[in-house]
Known about the structure:
Order of helices and strands: HHHHHHHEEHHEHEEHHHHHHHH
Radius of gyration: 21 Å
Largest sheet: 5 strands, mixed
Strand order of the largest sheet: 1-2-5-3-4
Number of helices: 18
Structural class: alpha+beta
Distance between the termini: 33 Å
Amino acid sequence: MLASVVASTVAYAVARGVDMEQITAATGLTRTDLLDPDAHLSQHLVPTVWRLLTKAYPGEAIALHMASATPFSYFGTLAYGARYAENLREALQNLVRYRSVLSDQLQIALIESSSEGILHMHHPMDAEDGGCAAEVGLALGLRYMREILGADDILVRADFTHLPFGPIQVYEEFFGSPVCFQQSHNALVFRQGALDLPTKQPDPDLFRYIQSHLDLVRERLAGSSDSPELSRIRNAMLDTSRYANAHNAERSEYGAEALARQMNMSLRALQRLTQDHGITVRQLLDETRQANAQQFLSDPRLSIEAISCLLGYSEDRAFRRAFKRWTGHTPAEFRRTVG
Length: 339
């Protein structure tokens, strides 16, 4: 998790009366740990701070309160890149491309149709804080989008997977649109044409410069963000998925058992190892499957049935259900957006 995200959350908690000593006792964090905004810290820190906040302020939409005042430096260099994009679409595509700079497990997708654009966001830690970080991310992101566009009327609705922390009216006043809870995804749904709105200060040269910087950051993080154990699991997982893609996927090489065999360990030992790092084997495998699915769907020569087989599904209906769960859209809908 990007340190600026952790630092902003801690700063807000302290401003609301949560003692730094209490935060340190719960997380092990000290102020020194937060000095470098571009560093990366444990993904478990932010949910822990949010649990302290929601306990102190029950019944309050506290994440929206934070999002209304938090500086855009929360997003690090990504905020600067969006400012110089040509339009909202390019700004959001930049967010999708460099999402790992914020957090190596953050999943973001931009899905377009003829009537709307949908920005989906998911992080494995969402369940640990009840959805507070998701609220801050989408609410602060919307506030920033409105600033760089100079336009307020861009949203159709906001969706969240969790229950509201405060009155619905507070949410609808902030987002300026209907807000739905207990949905399948955390998402911002933009009105038709909103993605084409130009930013107030597009600068292609500065935009490319910032992208080159983000490329370097992403490459550095790719080599350092995982522990040695997780890196070994991910490498083995890529090996098994490549094997499945090159051979008949009826072998089900995307399974946890196949991954354990690849690593010369028992399934139980593999499960314990991933749990120690705050993730499950299934989540890791789903990440690989989703990434490969999106890559395959960009190739019009591959049918949905063929892609299903390549991904190790016994029937294409299972793949369609899984893809819908990952992205909120069917494979055919996603293919139309990248075609």
